[in-house]
Amino acid sequence: MALAFAVLLGLVVTPQASAAALVEVTNFGPNPSNLRMHVYRPDRVAARPGILLAPHYCTGSGPEMYRNTEFARLADQYGFVVIYPSVTRAEKCFDVSSPQALRRDAGSDPVGLISMVRWSLRQYRGNPARVYVTGISSGAMMTNVMVANYPDVFDAGAAFAGVPDGCFATNNGSTWNTECANGQVLRTPQQWGDIARSAYPGYTGERPRVQLWHGTADDVLRYPNFGEEIDQWTNVHRLSTTPTSTDHPQPNWTRRRYSDKVEAYSLQNVGHNLMASGMALRAVQFFGLDRG
InterPro entries, alphabetically (predicted)? Predict the structure, then answer.
């Protein structure tokens, strides 16, 4: 299943010749949901490197995310460190549903993920002002959760085919929310913004920049979720939902920018498995990891 997913994504990457390798780390800190942690540190790492957290898609793993995306190759080029976490529960999806996951330091996967980030900052003398998160599908949903829970840690996030923070919330122990997946959870920008802000009550500091990607033909996490994500993060940044600029970087791509805080790519006639070659680079450029 994982191999088929990678083939559909069209992003199986041939590793470059390098002594650097993916390394598993244990005992990295509080980890209530028993996540596993792998790290890729390139041979030539920047002084005080940026740290990128890259949660995987459902049915995936950290090592599969490493093999099947371009982030490790880009780390070789630009000298940042990549964390590849893995879910160990049976369905291999990140918890973006439980009340514990949707509030800062309350438990579940986000606590283990932020432990990985903090461990990496210490171990690699990383730059705390250059910490980022990006993921696909379940990992994209977790990206939105992490920038809501830890706005003081992440400078930016990039979500590929996700849903707004809090959209998948359940109270019955289920990790799947069909109504949200089908694009039927519709709220006002203020309501979505309040949900994101409620993850860390009382926080008044800077909020992470957000890049969003979604295919119009997505039949897993349907396209209306894209508009709801835009509503959420523009409201969090106190911006209008009217873009400040619109362009077409590729014929079937529409990119809308909302000041310099939110960037949203709509991909015409593209389904759920949308991360093709070059998209990872655009995320890295949005983060600024391509610059010293």
Answer: AB_hydrolase_fold (IPR029058), Esterase_phb (IPR010126), Plant_Biomass_Hydrol_Est (IPR050955)
